[in-house]
Amino acid sequence: MGFRLRKAQPEDGSFLADMIMMAGRNHMSRAILEYLLGGKPNDCMTFLQMLLITQTPHLFHHSRFMIAEDTNGPVAAMGGYDPASMGYQAFLAAIPEVSPILGWSGAEQDLVKERTDKLVPCMPVISEGGWVIDRGATSPDARRQGAAGALLDGIVAEGKELGFEFAQTNIYIGNDPGIKLFEKNGFRVAEEKTDNFFEKMIGSPGMVSLKKDL
Q: What residues make up the domain containing 64?
């Protein structure tokens, strides 16, 4: 089946929020974002929809995503970003734009930073010069039809066009379909990192890092 690829727009917020949470949870007990925010799923969805349209760009910003559409509309999404300018530090910088709307106190914002500082070192290091591919998900009724592969091709091409030396992704250990998708595209396992704190908070023993030269 053929899919039309396009860059995500602000009005895609509801669909993107669903895809980001789906990708984040995968087969885990909760998504990384749910841990960072420390809230209930509905609270996270509200926060995420606002986070997608902040003035400050970051890894969860709508502009970092590409969407695959069929004749009925969006069916899948995947993100790509420069970790040096739009990684977790940019994410933390964007939170003050959203937290007043939700009525968060300064202490609640500090808790998000504290959780982020604890969790990020548990994940494989993003190497300098890399283009990060992340948060890919497909609607259940559109899976195994080529949408994820088409998006991955598009995101890889974007990173190459922007001049990055290689692409990198981190995937939960145990997400074999996700790992196979990237290996089929030419990615190879560079590192497997396990961490007891990560497993306790997220439910996965760790993450596998895959890379591909661009």
A: 4-213
